[in-house]
Amino acid sequence: MIAAEVAWLCVLSPFAGALLSPVLARIHPKLRDYGAVFLSFLAALCSVMLIPYLFHPEKLPIESAFVWLSFPIELKAGVLIDPLSIVMANVVAVISFIIMVYSLGYMKGDPSLTRWWMWMNLFIGSMLLLVLSNNLLFLFIGWKMVGLCSWGLIGFYKNDEKKYWIGGPAPTKYTTPSHCGLKAMVVTSAGDVVMLGGMLLMYAYSGTLNILELYETSSIWLPEMAKSSGMILLMSILLLAGPIGKSAQFPLHEWLPEAMAGPGPVSALIHAATMVKSGVYLVARLVPIFFYGYWVAGCSEASYFFILIAWIGAITAFLAATQGMVALELKKALAYSTVSQIGYMMLALGVTGLTAHSLMGGFTSGMFHLVNHALFKACLFLCAGSVIHTAHSIYMNDMGSIRKYMPFTWIFMVIAALSLMGVPPFPGFWSKDAILLSCLEAHNYPLFLFALITVVLTAFYTLRFIGMTFYGKESKNVENLKRKGVHLGEARLTMVVACGVLAITIIVLGIFGLPLEHLLHEGFGYTLVEKLHLPVEHATEMPHLLVPLLSVISVVIGIVPAYLLYFSGKLDPAGMLEKHASLKMLHKFFWNRWYIDRFYYMFFVGGMTELFTRVPKYIENPLDKLYHEKVPAGLIALSSRVPRFIENPLDRFYHMKDGLGRVARISIPSGMIAIFSRVPKYVENPLDRFYHMKDSMGRVARISIPSGMIAIFSRVPKYIENPLDRFYHMKDSLGRVARISIPAIPGAIYSGTKRIRIETGYLGYNLIYVLIFYIGFIILILLIFLGVIT
């Protein structure tokens, strides 16, 4: 099978397990159980088949996709195989399969096993879709499906029986499984919604959600985004909100301790292999984009991506470690540890972009620690589930000296705990030292100091939960169980085998830790440097023994007080707190989780509840009274004044008198009467005089049409008729002769012609006729020319 087909099968087989579980349950319960486990094994087998490509990174990346949506935009669904996705797929699929095998024993006899297998396989498939998807859209679909499955699995005991409550002991409040599942869903979804905004912002500038295309076109769209001040910073904050929520980083870390309400395998699945690693994976996916933006494209805002995630990781690692130091619930102590260790991973990925030579060191150490943590934390949670199953209590002070009843579980848990503390040569030592070295090579000493202090705290709380669980005196709870005849011993065979496999893998990984780190370095280096052409400078040489030495010293500093308090019995923890007020105050502060969780409940839960009680009093009721009492009353009062102030004045204005008989001083009728009374005086009589010389009252007009016509007619004979009569007839009716007239013209012409002929002879006489002809001809030509123009 080719790599792409193997990847598709890896993704689809757990989904098939989720769909087939109810069908197989109708045939036979065992067929359902083994069918669900087999399909998860098939996913693990497919992921392992991709490992050989890590030794040949030149064949990567491999992408297989099909068109999923063509309108209004083209979107493709596909898988992407590169070193990062291969590592994540193996972490998810292999460890999830081991947890599924563990579940055969842990969940045996549970009435809701069909629902259990459905949720578990759907969880695994969703996580594989997330890490193998070739685009951010389907990555987000897997991302949200993982969140949905976490809600179903954390709140698996949905009836909230008291034996499944977590929290306490009194007076500390207890929390029900359904509430814990809801809390996980709400907190992580808050980050998811913000992250979706970042993805859409990235798509708006890049025009694609395909991961490889985002890498290839970053030289185009990142500088274009940088032209808008603050846009890259905004995108960084939005995109990081999702990983911060999903991977339980400060300030969205408070949901993870409550995830302990689910069954033991759920804790291992969420905290080790799947959900909390998704945020680390996404940050690793985004690192090349922002590294290019800062160190190649010169977009200074891209540096905030690395600064933010590095400091958030460092702060979270320290904060969660302090809470793990005082936890009483075994799984909750491990949960705080998970939050802290993921902080280490985020710190390493943040360091990658702080300097030009930190890329490979930070990236490799962060992902190497992810692999190691997945193994030892899965082993710790599965062993914790076995211990709780035997001790019938979630509290470590209800255990004590259990190692003699559960020797295998004790050995396996100690191996995993040593790796968690960073004791050489276990794998946790190699990856944690690589992270410390990355911080030191980046010359960021505050981050290095935070990480080193967290090593001390990690060693303390790890040895504390080992001591309280397996050493010291037997608790009253264990003594009561012995008296009742309850079996105190190893859990079911599948549970022990699963823990043993993980413990052996931890030892093997510790032996071959350096070669594995080198393999990851080569694979990631080829992708980042050879394929993406990211510039990598050589780091400043650091003393080889400095970091391991400081790391081992820090582990010893944490181990010594934990040994004295919880192993040797030379110091009494309760007595120490009573003796030292400062320690007691610090213990209370850490026990109350830095009061962050309490603040969230007070502000968001209590605040919203308080708001809901005040909304009716200060908003709904006043608005209700306004709209249904005051507004109607105002309208009634207004309508009672309408007749007085509007209708009656208008009535008087239009009719001179209103309905009460009151006369208006100014009204339309009175105005019309006043107008009509003045029309004869100012309009009709003047017009009458103008047209008829006299009006109806006999008054004569100075100027009128008749007088004007008479004046004109009296002047016509003098100025028009007599002059015309003389012009046409030589004399007018009064016998006056005209100097110029038509009858006199021919005689004048004849006499004039005769005189010219006498004076000039016939030559001059003919010349006159020629001149007349030419003058006439010229006039005719001019008339024709003017006619053509017009």
How is this structure best summarized?
By secondary structure, this protein is mainly α.
Key phrases:
790 residues, mainly alpha, 2 domains, two-stranded antiparallel ribbon, 27 helices
Distance between the termini: 96 Å
- For the record, the count of structural domains works out to 2
Strand order of the largest sheet: 1-2
> How would the global form be characterised?
elongated
Structural class: mainly alpha
Rg value: 51 Å
Q: If helices are DSSP runs of H or I spanning 4 or more residues, what is the number of helices? A: 27
Q: Helical residue percent? A: over 70%
Number of strands: 4
What's the arrangement of secondary structure elements?
Layout: H1 3-27, H2 29-49, E1 62-69, E2 75-81, H3 83-106, H4 113-132, H5 136-154, E3 166-167, E4 174-175, H6 177-206, H7 211-216, H8 218-226, H9 231-246, H10 264-273, H11 275-295, H12 303-324, H13 330-351, H14 359-391, H15 407-421, H16 427-441, H17 445-470, H18 476-484, H19 493-511, H20 513-531, H21 546-566, H22 573-579, H23 581-591, H24 596-655, H25 668-692, H26 705-729, H27 744-789
Antiparallel strand pairs: 1-2, 3-4
Q: What does this protein structure show overall?
A:
A hairpin with a 6-residue loop joins strand 3 and strand 4. Helix 9 runs antiparallel to helix 11 and helix 17 packs parallel to helix 21. The longest helix is centred in the C-terminal third of the chain and has 60 residues. This protein has two domains: 583 residues, no CATH class; 36 residues, no CATH class. The chain is mainly α. It is elongated and about 170 Å long.
